[in-house]
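WARN no homologs supplied; continuing
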Amino acid sequence: MQILVLGGGGREHAIVWKLAQSKKVEKIYCAPGNPGIAQLAECVDLDTTDNKGLAHWAKEHHIDLTVVGPEVPLVAGVADEFRAQGLAIFGPNAQAAAIEGSKAFSKELMKKYNIPTAFFKVCNDLATAKAYVEEKGAPIVVKADGLAAGKGVIVAMTKEEALAALEDIMAEHKFGTAGASVVIEEFMEGEEASLLAFTDGKIVVPMIAAQDHKRVDDGDKGLNTGGMGAYAPAPVLTDALRDKCMATIIRPVLKALEEKAVVIPAVSMQD
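OK structure emitted
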């Protein structure tokens, strides 16, 4: 098989590293890749936001399977384009990828289908957002709605920090169009764990739990970022808790996405 991997970060390096161990894989390309990936695959200079260009290149180079790492190409519909052209690709279509591309979409989906989530409000203008922070107080979490490379979440321990975050996101456009709307969410204290799963839309196979540490600076004193390090398995997610997560979150989310019946109102709230 000839494989094309889209992306150029640590996640894609891990994907390439594992694919390279398969006896079925003859050649791996990675776009754009990085110097570490270049030791295992041929890096190619392709625009990962050009869906038609990527599909054309994949056909020309007889790619048997494309694996997408980053969220941006998926939200932009790269999987839809590849499938429309009869090309095999690992990744959700644009509609399903919206659960990663829009925090408002994911929160509304969870609300609609009674999937456990922190209370929240989606705000499309600065005045409404500030009024909600004034009402709720702090600590509180402010999130740019769209993709911000893991940097669009501010855990505000004071009301002043929350209001300043809103100014940065909605007035100063710190995260560009990702901050056109915000999700203001309940602050929840405790250990965090991530449970990811593979699915074909019907069958769901969970991975082992992981725990990542998002804040920069020692003592978790800095802003959230894409991740300052992670490890797996995470002991905090016991087998019993994993089973509960599968039953109350992961399988219901998959069912909700399959129904494709989510409508996002302009401004909404759940307490």
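The CA atoms of residues 19 and 136 lie 48 Å apart.
OK
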